[in-house]
TrEMBL record:
Name this polypeptide is given: Polygalacturonase
SUPFAM superfamilies: Pectin lyase-like
Pfam families the UniProt entry points to: Glyco_hydro_28
InterPro entries: Glyco_hydro_28, PbH1, Pectin_lyas_fold, Pectin_lyase_fold/virulence
Subcellular localization(s) per the UniProt record: Secreted, Cell wall
UniProt-annotated catalytic positions: H241
Source organism (scientific name): Escallonia herrerae
Amino acid sequence: MVKQAMLPLLSVLFICFTPKSLAGTPNTYNVVDLGARPDGRTDSAKAFTSAWTAACGSDSAATVYVPPGRYLVQKADFAGKCRNSAITFRMDGTLVAPSDYRVANAGSWILFHGVDGVTLSGGTLDGQGSALWDCKAAGGSCPVGAASLVFDNSNNININGLISLNSQRFHVVIHGCQNVMVQGVTVSAPGSSPNTDGIHVQRSSGVTILDAHIGTGDDCISIGPGTNNLLIEDVICGPGHGISIGSLGSNQQEPGVQNVTVKTAVIRGAMNGVRIKTWGKPSNAFVKDVHFQHVTVTDVQNPIIIDQNYCPGNRNCPGQACFLTNNSGVKISDVTYQDIHGTSATEVGVKFDCSRSNPCSGLILDGVKLTYMNKPAEGYCLYAGVQVEDVQATNCLQS
Ligand SMILES: *[C@@H]1O[C@H](CO)[C@@H](O)[C@H](O)[C@H]1NC(C)=O
Ligand SMILES: *[C@@H]1O[C@H](CO)[C@@H](O)[C@H](O)[C@H]1NC(C)=O
């Protein structure tokens, strides 16, 4: 009874004080109060930087608030080391990149580096990449382009509910980070847009990607050298190039990839389902302890693929390495494929094209059911040690 009587009073208090207290909450820095213009045309980068500087200099937890509206941000660079490790970007608005791709350069558009304890909640990033894609398609000399959101050398990061649209290049990059949660992120770019990977993880440990919905022109999620303890769960991919470990082994000295789990993924209308891709040249890199579980593919060209002969146009492979074909130095071991099913868009559903000098070892297929035109898809294996369990496929994969 007492509780019920209290409720109306509380709601009145809430209604009366909410607007004021939100604006005046200590340690909340509203970018509009600091000069940002939600008109989509006026460069608001300075206001964002001011808000960050204030939040970063605060002795206690702080919030940067981005109200609804479109904010043109030419380029933003948010650096540590802050006086607190609990900064939240609460975004109800959209950040818009300059449509002139020559403006945002240096590889990234919204960059956080050396930060600790940053949460990015909600919001939309509109990379306006189409002019650069057109330039690339026309074959002119175009800049590489900027990744929309980059976390570099940062720890304890939480990105949730973000929408990233039409990046010039990669949409979200996690590089040199530890303990990162990426949850409920949506990425959207046309299937024809070049190098627009959804989420790229590299040289990072303890990254979790949950509930992602990604359609792009390149990898849905790409996993680069030096990635450890990565969990990807509940993702929907397509169009694009699927979930990809690699390319690895482009350098002689390169950290390996270890302990990656991909669990419950749906991949539709993509070039690949789950892929491991390495350059066909010497390297000390490796891939081990990888688990692909519960993956549904629909109309995917290479549902399961290991390609160790990557050497586009047989160029960029220094020395003679590429003439010694099938000679990738990258050692691939202990990769399990469990409950992978659906439809292949080509005859070969499982392709293991491994290195002659470093054959794949410990590949386990368990419950793989892939069809091509209503018949079991084929398997193709070269230099691969495969153990099969309950696999519906022909050729090298017959159990
Ligand atoms: C592997 O990574 C997961 C996170 O995906 C982590 O919980 C687990 O402890 C790691 N295993 C090892 C042996 O490091
Ligand atoms: C090298 O790999 C290709 C497939 O990528 C295969 O056709 C060829 O037979 C392999 N060559 C050797 C020498 O193993």
